[in-house]
Amino acid sequence: MPVPVTPEVLPHVDAVQGALEAVGLTVYVGGAPATTGWTAPDKYCVLYPEPGTAVRESLADQRTDFETTMTITCVGSDWERVLWATDRVRRALAAPLVVDGRSCWPPEDRGGPPLARDDDVTPPVYYSPIQYWIGSTPA
Hints:
Elements: H1 9-22, E1 27-29, E2 43-49, E3 53-55, E4 65-76, H2 79-92, E5 102-104, E6 108-109, E7 116-118, E8 125-138
Parallel strand pairs: 1-2
Antiparallel strand pairs: 2-4, 3-4, 4-8, 5-8, 6-8, 7-8
């Protein structure tokens, strides 16, 4: 009997990051750089992946299906740049992701809170997080 393939989160994160970069977005994973001398672009996205869940594909308890939620926070120097980035995120994630050895469902847009302004940074920025549900099965 073949050993079931355990799903991995990293290829799914790479697929989301690649899809976002393919539509012209600057993407950071886990947070924007905090290094001295770093200058933020006028708009960018931060991808916050979750480790996800290996889900049972059947009563046999083979955990080969995968699902996770990823939050993509669009950040910009003004509200228009944030909404521009939001439109690009939705364009990038409108089709199923490509993950080697996996069949992916189209990402499900779960929305997020309203656009907000962060005055705790200099200069202030606007931001808007969007959550996406990501799911796949073995190909």
